[in-house]
Amino acid sequence: MQPNRHPCDQPRLVFVAAVATNGCIGRHNDLPWHLPEDLQHFKSVTREGTLLLGRKTYESIVQRLGRPLPGRHHLVLSRNTSWQPQPEHAQQVQPVLSIEEAIRVANNRLADTLFVIGGAELYTATQAMADTAELTEVELEPEGDAFLPGWGPKGWENARLPNCKAGDWQVSKASGLRYRFLRYSKPKVNIKLGAAVLVAGLASRFHGQPKALLENQQGSILSQTVKALLSVGIDQVCLVHGGHAGALVPLVDGLKVQHVENPEPSAGQARSQQLGLTQLGEDLDGYLVCLGDQPLLDKEDLRRLICAFRKREAGVDMVYPETPKGEPGNPVIVTPALRDWFVSQKQAMLGKDWRQGNPGKALAFPTTRPGFFVDIDSEDDLKAFNAGQEERKRLTMPLGYVFQRSAAR
Predict the structure, then answer these.
(1) In total, how many domains does the chain have?
(2) Do residue 86 and residue 151 come from a single domain?
């Protein structure tokens, strides 16, 4: 499995469904038609994949075949917390209680794709999150008790399929039914993003030295962070600095960066965040809040975070990285509405404090990439970091600042 398997560092959701022209997808937990070509197509699309399906759909498969689908891992969504598969199927089948849990499990399995295969309620719940729909349209109007809800190509792009023209009608040799394979994908929408990079901290655990000055063979942490932001198309970057502006600002000379000073660095990071978001203005579609002491953060990390922000559901105002153990990281991205709220507060508030009070409006983006979680807070952190890095990535403080610290002792 490739380490850069997907821009979001989590599986993409793909609908796989056979649907009649009247929207019917099932009757009595079975397909109301016989179409071997569709079964073969389904097998080809989902081969060796991870499936997300409802409990009734899973049980209908086992009832019909006597076993789960071979060569695929099944994540069975059930509201019944005590439901378990038969012991002989346990290695291939895992119960989950939510779509979010299913995505985390699939991500931990390093799955590229999570195939949503029904039933109707699950299609409804995941439609906004899906990237692609692999449909078999059957020219038939059968009676049924399960229908693909609200489906339509509006907002999707019809993509060409390999080995056949997208949308070509074919005739089943077994049943004489007309059918066609369709693939829809969601087009990417260009969005304007800004980023506030916070480097005004007092660095009290780092002898008062600005950690963003730390450098390796590629340059300072700060310059590498700003270049990574610009390289992924961030429209505006604002540097929020404090008492070390004279040393930090030259590091980004020649780069497209705004500057704002936090006159009271002792007021904390929340005030720097507020100042940076204010400086970025109101005409953006999303706002990143970045730290200046994350030495492994790179453009691939940022691409994945931005991708997760693009894919968020309605009502989500913050997207942040999180380890499989539930540990949050940085940067975060917030919507214009949340940016406006942060800016308007008389008492500045950190994103993590808002997140704790609004769990339903914050989306955890599951990832194991270290760039989101490794930072340098102390000299011990620096020693531990360098011990695990090759020579070109080891960090040192510019000589003048090392001398300044030594002279102060």
Answers:
(1) 2
(2) yes
The token pair that represents 158 in the structure block? 């019809």
CB 322 within 8 A of CB 328: yes
Alpha-carbon distance of 80 to 96, in angstroms, equals 10
Same domain, 208 and 355: yes
Tokens of 358: 């609004």
Helix (H) or strand (E) holding 195: strand 193-199
What is residue 397's predicted lDDT score, i.e. its pLDDT? 87
Report if residue 92 sits inside a domain. yes
Please check whether residues 244 and 389 belong to one and the same domain. yes
Give residue 401's pLDDT: 57
Q: Which residues of the chain have pLDDT under 70?
A: 1-9, 149-167, 188-189, 399-409
Residue 407: per-residue pLDDT = 36
The answer as to whether 1 is a domain residue is no
The torsion angle over the Cα atoms of residues 135, 141, 144 and 147, rounded to 10 degrees, is 40
∠ CA 330-335-339, nearest 5°, is 85
Taking a C-beta distance cutoff of 8 angstroms, is the pair 194, 235 a contact?
A: yes
The two structure tokens encoding residue 381: 């952190």
- Identify the pLDDT of residue 167: 61
In angstroms, the CA 72 to CA 49 distance is 5
Q: Assess whether the previous peptide bond of 208 is cis (omega < 30° from 0).
A: no
Contact call for residues 61 and 68 (beta carbons, < 8 A)? yes
Do residues 121 and 218 share a domain? no
Q: Taking a C-beta distance cutoff of 8 angstroms, is the pair 226, 239 a contact? A: yes
In a domain, 31, yes or no: yes
By residue range, what is the domain housing residue 268? 193-404
pLDDT at position 8, please?
Answer: 55
Specify the pLDDT at position 406.
Answer: 35
- 409 assigned to some structural domain: no
Return the pLDDT at 39: 95
The domain boundary, picked from 158, 185, 212, lies at 185
Beta strands in 22-152 (DSSP E): 24-26, 50-54, 73-77, 93-96, 113-116, 132-138, 146-147
Distances (CA, A) of 389 to 104, 183, 185, 297: 29, 44, 40, 14
pTM of the complete model beyond 0.85 = no
